[in-house]
Predict the structure.
Amino acid sequence: MRILHTIAQYPDRTGSGIACRNIIKCMRSFDEVEDQALIYGHNPEQKLTDLACRSYPVDFDTEALPFPVAGMSDVMPYRSTVYKEMTEVQVEQWIAGFRQALDLAVKEFKPDLIIAHHLWLLTSLCLDYDIPVLALSHGTDIRQAKQNPDYFHKYVGDLSGLDLVSALSHEQIEDLQEVYGLKPEKIFVGGAGFDHEVFLRKTKREPGPDVRLLYAGRFARAKGCYELLEAFHAIPEEENVSLHLLSHVEEQDRDLVTSYLKNDNRISQYGPLSQAELAQEMRKYDIFIFPSYYEGLGLSALEAMASGLYLVTTHLPGLRAFMGEELWFHEDITRVEMPELVDLDRVAEAAIAQHVKNLTEAILVSVHNFREKDYQIADFSQELAPFTWQGVAAELARRASSLIA
């Protein structure tokens, strides 16, 4: 089986990009997978290494595509174009660039099947070829379709012809049916995973009474970062707690972050890291804060747990459904009720103050729990065993084989 993978953005630095790379990596060991190739988009400064399969990159910031790569989230951890802000000329250039890559890959690589990431514009182009398409929803595609219906109907169009669609969780199935008109028999829960060879539990906690909190991911309002800064700032200094942001900060947020850094020396901010660097860095901290308002899944929370960190998270339905009830209510996980939202991922103005208070209290509960256990490292190893990329890739390969049998 020859598989062509497609993703319209950089295959790293985001949940879907990391998923794409890990699925390719794991599938290399399967007997039924003869060869693989990847179509992806990238900016000039984004050099892809260790892919270990043929690739057909689509280059942005060029004469043919004179703008940065487009991302499924409006705020990406690298220079990007927002889909809804693209002009008709830019959309035409985008389509021409990926159409050229698809034509070349189909001609040269001769795939038996396409595994397409995101139910969005590139996946709609994949349907123009007489090749079975298995698409993976990462949640951000559903959000884009709901928030930008005009763009969705004009440029993405009908995706009901997809052969199979992988959902992150059972909770997502209804949205996939409603938004894309997919029949239930075409949808299965493929989930997502983490790289258990990279995200390893630290062996011991470094000595010291301080408690180190970590947020890793895009710094954005939709990720709950504004309220996180306020919530942490309300924690008394005598608690001896620090907050570390491993985040790419966009220009519009830079003044806000800088003001908190100046006014509270317990807060520090560093640039985004590679997967290997992030895994190594995670083991330096004690509690992972996941304050997001919308996630297709929330894989970084599982990566932090695998690294031995306690977890404070907003009540994300997708993450809860993926974890299952037993793990969701683990004693080393502290949950914060989701505030009233507008536009899927923004806190209603009237709910901000109470949510900040709730988040502060949840952080303190986790901090006190950590201290009461004598700074004992969290151990989720048994509960997280089913959530590895190897298992996800194996299920995808099995489903893919059924399409070309």
Observations:
- The longest helix spans residues 88-109.
- The first strand starts at residue 2 and ends at 7.
- The mean pLDDT is 94.
